Amino acid sequence: xxxxxxxxxxxxxxxxxxxxxxxxxxxxxxxxxxxxxxxxxxxxxxxxxxxxxxxxxxxxxxxxxxxxxxxxxxxxxxxxxxxxxxxxxxxxxxxxxxxxxxxxxxxxxxxxxxxxxxxxxxxxxxxxxxxxxxxxxxxxxxxxxxxxxxxxxxxxxxxxxxxxxxxxxx
Length: 170
Prior knowledge:
Layout: H1 7-20, H2 22-54, E1 67-70, E2 78-80, H3 82-90, E3 94-108, E4 114-127, E5 130-147, E6 150-160
Parallel strand pairs: 1-6
Antiparallel strand pairs: 1-2, 3-4, 4-5, 5-6
């Protein structure tokens, strides 16, 4: 049969549990906070990346050691140095008016220093003030690695979506 519960007893038991596990609780709260900050940071890096690219500027998010990239034009995997990537963006006659959507970031690794990111890109590509790709829609997956407190892109794969077009560089 039901009876009443002495709330003072319950509060004391909860207090004892919290005091015995306070280090673990603080660790969990800090870890969750740091991961949330890293996810927000990576999301911001991706958004800023595409803003820079739309202005014809290289955002310098590639690892100083380079990255493996497969573009949405259907290219094979290629290893790009930061200089190669910068040249592709800044020397292209095209303007990529592209924005990322539905960015999903997951952080992995014992040190929480690897991130897998998936998102969509949509927009247009222009050359000489004319739209040459009116329906750019691509799936993107990117791997980031945290080095010296900064997130760098170490691999990316882009593939056109159904009824969408891939990128054109020349």
